[in-house]
């Protein structure tokens, strides 16, 4: 561990953590470092947040 900070977690682990957060918290977490910024911009993450926030059934078709 360099610099006394947090050990670097794999992106897949960070994504699982971010999936448990609210959208405001994901945005705040993305300001922590480059790795967290990249994970916080994941398309799958934001699709999940969208469905949760707007309570949209995932079976509803999206427009092309």
UniProtKB/TrEMBL annotation:
SMART domains the UniProt entry points to: FBOX (SM00256)
Alphabetical GO biological process terms: protein ubiquitination
A Pfam family this chain is assigned to: F-box-like
Transmembrane segments: none
Superkingdom, taxonomy of origin: Eukaryota
Residue ranges of every copy of the F-box domain listed in the record: 3-49
Annotated GO CC locations: Cul4-RING E3 ubiquitin ligase complex; SCF ubiquitin ligase complex
Official protein name in the record: F-box domain-containing protein
Species this chain originates from: Chiloscyllium punctatum
């Amino acid at each position: 561990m360099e610099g006394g900070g947090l050990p670097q977690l794999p992106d897949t682990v960070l994504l699982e953590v971010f999936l448990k957060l609210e959208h405001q918290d994901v945005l705040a977490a993305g300001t922590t470092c480059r790795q967290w910024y990249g994970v916080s911009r994941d398309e799958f993450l934001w699709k999940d947040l969208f469905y949760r926030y707007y309570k949209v059934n995932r079976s509803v078709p999206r427009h092309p």
